[in-house]
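The following block was generated as part of the benchmark described in Methods. Ligand: zinc ion.
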Amino acid sequence: MIRILILIIYFCTSLIKILSKLHIFTKISATSKQKNMLIRDIANYLEKFAPISLQESYDNSGLLIGASTSEVNKILITLDVTEDVIKEAVSKNCDLIIAHHPIIFNGIKKLTNSNLTEKLVVEAIKSNVAIYAIHTNLDNIIGGVNSILAKKLGIKNTRILSPKSGGFKKIICFCPNDYTQIVQKAMFDAGAGMIGNYDTCSYVSSGTGTYKALEGSNPFIGEKNQLHEEKENRIEVIIPEYLINNAVKAMKNAHPYEEPAYDIYTLDNTNNMVGSGLIGEIDTETPITEYLKTVKRTLGSKYIKHNKLIDRPVKRVAICGGSGSFLIDVAARNKADLFITGDVKYHDYFEHTGNMTIADAGHYETEHPVKELIYALLKEKFPNFALQISEESANPISFM
Ligand SMILES: [Zn+2]
């Protein structure tokens, strides 16, 4: 009896091994956990967190290769897409790579393997691997690339170092007094009324609306072909530009009128929740060399290049993961003791000598924590989905 049992266990184990080698078992188990997950489900979720409209003008975030309606079974997360990373995706049965850096920036007119981009695009298509990039839209938000960097470096009470101007709209709509709260709530639920750390912000004023319902209309209140006066409230709310369509749709759905009257204004307000870099403080004033050693160890930097070290302890620290030398002056204006970024050029080191230490800890080193961030974001929403951080995503720069 025991022999038969052992034989059955041996047979089942062998069968599972064979199936897993054929990549069948992996796919069955992955799909059975999370059925029919499409690339667009993943993209929609990520873009709700980091809207594409917040990316820089030169950028190319979003789905770069593949169809949004394709099913996805396993995701590989990387900083960069390289040939090794595509091979890794294939070997691990990942059908979607999520990268921080887009592999395509400019228009491609031919695919003849004449440069690295063309080679990678062809390789990904041949391998049936979709590629999605989440780049400066993830750089430019609270909770994005710089927030995870700040967390790793013990920088607290952070705010955006260089907030963006614009990107806001104002919706003004008019509705019968009794419907004010319903219409307000619909717009709040659609993302309107957020100002800094305050939500449900609006302004309501009272007045009288007039209209005459014509033939073909179906007025909520009032008679056809008669001038009607109605006590109405004017509701004003601010909303990020990328949410405007949602909010207008929500307002119209909640509004009792057949033809709600509303205005949309473009605002030049600065958005303190969106922009480049972060600035904050570390818990205690720390000697500059001691803190830079912590940065080096934490980020795994081989070297930290810096200008003259300030002769006071560090408390206020500005950061920009990746390539942030364009923020050096902004960091100094915000009285940072130390600015940490990557890709600092020779002449930049002459700036702000004695006032602020500029430290280049490496482009890769200041950005690679983004892989953990993307992993955590996806895991939170899709806890049972198969995800993997790339083991082949490495710093392209070597040191000797
Ligand atoms: Zn980068």
